[in-house]
Design brief:
0% helix, 127 residues, 7-stranded mixed beta sheet, 4-stranded antiparallel beta sheet, mainly beta
Length: 127
């Protein structure tokens, strides 16, 4: 049974930093691209970042590029999202997710191509 457990969210002032973690179990972690998405209140879930199986490829939404960094530790079955220079508009519930297929890098930005999701962690950035 695949399980994804996020942690590291919280309340931070604008300009501050947070590091999110997502611990995975029940899967061959090194076989899958992992993604981070977020959903603000009243809005659709949106792509934030993704990392390929061994970390050689990364991708970021334009709104976070240069401020957020995704990484993974395959020995610990964990993916991270380092968030710097946070803005109030980054306020959302952040989810990590496992992509559906080992060959799905091309569709990494699409919510529908991820088949397992964590429960989410709230990030609130005050102005």
């Amino acid at each position: 049974q695949v399980q994804l457990l996020e942690s590291g969210g919280g309340l931070v002032q604008a300009g501050g930093s947070l590091r999110l973690s997502c611990a995975a179990s029940g899967l061959t972690f090194t076989s899958y691209t992992m993604g981070w998405f977020r959903q603000a209140r009243g809005k659709e879930r949106e792509f934030v970042s993704a990392i390929s199986q061994r970390g050689g490829l990364t991708d970021y939404a334009g709104s976070v590029k240069g401020r957020f960094t995704i990484s993974r530790d395959n020995a610990k079955n964990t993916v991270y999202l380092q968030m710097n220079s946070l803005k109030p508009e980054d306020t959302a519930v952040y989810y990590c997710a496992k992509i559906r297929s080992t060959t799905d890098w091309a569709v990494r930005r699409s919510v529908g191509f991820y088949d397992y999701w964590g429960q989410g962690t709230q990030v609130t950035v005050s102005s």
